Amino acid sequence: MRFSKWLVLLSLIVASSMLAWACGGGGDNKSPTQTSPAGPTAAAGETPQSGGTPQAGGQFSGLSARFAQANFKATFDVKSTGGTQGDFAGTMIMYKKGDLLREDFQSESGGQTTTATYITTPDKSYVCSPATQAGESDTCYSAPVQPGEGAGQIVADLEKVLTASSLQVVSTSSRNIAGEDADCYTIRSSDLEGDAEICLSKEAVPLYTKSTAQGAESTLEATAFSRDVSDSDFQPPYPVTDTSATSTP
User: Fold this and answer.
1) Are residues 195 and 170 in contact, defined by beta-carbon separation less than 8 angstroms?
2) Which of 127, 125, 72 is nearest to 104 (CA)?
3) What's the confidence (pLDDT) of residue 192?
4) What is the CATH number of domain 3-229?
5) Rounded to two decimals, what is the model's pTM?
């Protein structure tokens, strides 16, 4: 699994894949392979650390177990500039409590604003969107949870990537992001065109990523973080249409 595939999951393709499913589409939503410039400059609040291990390994083991214990609500700014499909900017709010996960996504591209909500529970997933035209209704579409969905899969996939034998840690640093201390890594792999940067909280919550590829630069950065989250946050916000009868495995 490519590191760029995981970045896409957390940022730009989240919105397009949710909307395609909600609208009954089945097309391939693709995003450029994402990589980042080598040797990032230390940002404000960042403490560079000398050395850095030549290869990843045990330091990334157990990310999934740490993330499983995390309960939080985080707001992220996501942005892509310079790509062939034009500039993109949006906000993602992620809620997690145990095995419950919710992502609220709002984006703007080409002067158009798109809003969607994605929720996964142990047995159901929901894609919700407000009405965009007269005569339409705010709707959530539900379906049984499929393999690979769910709160734990986000960091389970990331752990596989970061513990791959082909991955190298180029440099390490520490930053405070949205009030949370984070360990930051610039990494390199044969699956990447260059280097990529990622920052993880003590609970293995990804708080920052930066990447560039094919002339496009993409970033995801937490701007607010709270541990105040409740079961009610994971209730579908609109009336639900059950698609189980028409869903395919």
Assistant:
1) yes
2) 127
3) 62
4) 2.50.20
5) 0.74
